[in-house]
Amino acid sequence: MQDSLQAARGLMGDSLGFHIIFVLFSLTIPILVAWFELIGIRRKDNAYIEVAKFWSKIMALLIIAGVISGTVVALQMTLIWPGILKFGGQVIGLPFMLETYAFLVEAAFLGLYLLTWNNSKVSPMLHWFFGVMTAIGANASAFFITSVDAWMNLPTGFTLVGGKLTNIDAIGAMFSQTSIIELVHSMPAYYLTAALSIAGIYAIKLLRVRKQDRSAKKYRMDYSIIRSLVGFAAVMFIFSGVTAHFTGQYLGKHEPTKLAALELQYKTESHASFVYGGVAGPNNTIQGPHITVPNLLSILSGYSPNTVVQGLDKTPANERPPLYIHTLFTIKLLLVGLLGVIAFGYLVLRFWKPDWAQSRLILSSVAISGLIGVIIIELGWMLTEIGRQPWAVHGYVTTAQALTTHHVQSLAWIFPTAYLALGTVTILALRKIIRDNSKATKGGY
Predict the structure, then answer these.
(1) Please, are residues 189 and 366 in contact by the beta-carbon 8 Å criterion?
(2) Could you give the CA distance from residue 364 to residue 415 in angstroms, rounded to a whole number?
(3) Which domain holds residue 221?
(4) Whether 376 and 419 share a structural domain
(5) Does some domain include residue 343?
């Protein structure tokens, strides 16, 4: 049983880790495409419209790949974790259904958008509207699926009587505080990461050019794209910081065990310290180099040093998540700080010292910023999912209870193989789109 459980957890982790990469791009690129097309329409600047047109081809590919990978995740949920839907299907069935409708909106307007480029019978603003609706459909789909995960973290919208769900409120469960918190914290992070990833591609392009040639007129649009995308990412970074604070407060109130594990808060107390670094040691100790900031965890949780923060002592040992998530949290905070330095540092240099912004060091930092963002996204979801363990549906269904009775190892080869094939085809298709566009524009993206 334990072997099957660990194999199932590993499979789900691999699947979600792969799928989330497609998700963050398929949610963000429609927004960026609509943004750049609108700039082109308003300024009557065809260069921006051509960029939007090029990005729309990549957008279509990644949306299709994202739908395929999401279908594989849904199949895996049904085959490997039937206990989740068996328990809560009456509550979370609605967002699953609405996610399908959102996808239909996204797919319909994506088709209209792609088919009406340069169509004289379609006005520029109508074409732009098609793009906006594509973005709305994609992001609505993300909300519905996020609400399912939020429900698993804090189940609401029902009363359990005699082992059966009664007084079901699927709408209330879907729009719960947990859903809103997860959405407003995760979405800016997706936008930030995708924008920096695209900016990084343009930075790599400039790095291939000799330093003395980087200021040539033909590269002006590339710098403009980088500046715009990094500026967009900086705004999303601020939003992420604000929502991270509210997420921490939410965890302290509604998921205190997860917060205690993240912060190695062993004891329930006021004047709780914020701990950065170190690892969990025996007998409720923290080992290794770490920084302790007195009172800060209480202040962050309730704006006062007197705020009581629940510790792990209130949770039975067999219901606590693995404490290595504190290390993952430490790494995430470090990378978030590094990403902030890169984004805001680039913008400052671009304004005050534009020549420095063209240096190899600065362009290289922009080039790797997207990868850093992806790692942060992955760590964030690992903290969310691993921090809920040992529960599949917190307080009601453990992961062991949700697991299929079939031998999971017999299915293990199917999903990694599917993702390997999908990833390979997607990369090859992306390369072809970029190469074809580069030939058409004589070296430009």
Answers:
(1) no
(2) 35
(3) 194-382
(4) no
(5) yes
Question: Structure tokens of 201?
Answer: 């591609």
Asked if 337 contacts 291 with a C-beta cutoff of 8 angstroms, the reply is no
Q: Give the tens place of pLDDT for each residue, 137-165.
A: 999 999 999 999 999 999 999 998 888 88
Residue 389 lies in a domain: no
Residues in the chain: 445
- Note the pLDDT of residue 363: 92
Residues whose CB is less than 8 angstroms from the CB of residue 77 and which lie 6 or more positions away in sequence, other chains included: 84, 85
In tens, the pLDDT along 277-315 reads 999 988 889 999 999 999 999 999 988 999 999 999 999
Strand partners, 398: 391
Percent of the chain with pLDDT over 70: 94
Q: Are 340 and 235 in contact (CB under 8 A)?
A: no
What is the SS3 string spanning the chain?
CHHHHHHHHHHHHHHHHHHHHHHHHHHHHHHHHHHHHHHHHHHCCHHHHHHHHHHHHHHHHHHHHHHHHHHHHHHHHHHHCHHHHHHHHHHHHHHHHHHHHHHHHHHHHHHHHHHCCCCCCCCHHHHHHHHHHHHHHHHHHHHHHHHHHHHHHCCCCCEEECCEEECCCHHHHHCCHHHHHHHHHHHHHHHHHHHHHHHHHHHHHHHCCCHHHCCCHHHHHHHHHHHHHHHHHHHHHHHHHHHHHHHHHHHHHHCHHHHHHHHCCCCCECCCCEEEEEEEECCCEEEEEEEEECCHHHHHHHCCCCCCECCHHHCCHHHCCCCCHHHHHHHHHHHHHHHHHHHHHHHHHHHHCHHHHCCHHHHHHHHHHHHHHHHHHHHHHHHHHHCCCCEEECCCEEHHHHCCCCCHHHHCCHHHHHHHHHHHHHHHHHHHHHHHHHHHCCCCC
For residue 225, give every residue at least 6 positions away whose Cβ sits within 8 Å of its Cβ, in sequence order, or none.
51, 198, 199, 202
Asked if 68 and 199 sit in the same domain, the reply is: no
Reference 139, options 72, 194, 199, 202; nearest CA is: 194
Residues of the chain with pLDDT under 50: none
Question: Quick one: 428 and 368 in the same domain?
Answer: no
Number of separate domains in the chain: 2
Q: Give CA angle at 309 (308, 311), nearest 5°.
A: 130
61 and 205 belong to one structural domain: no
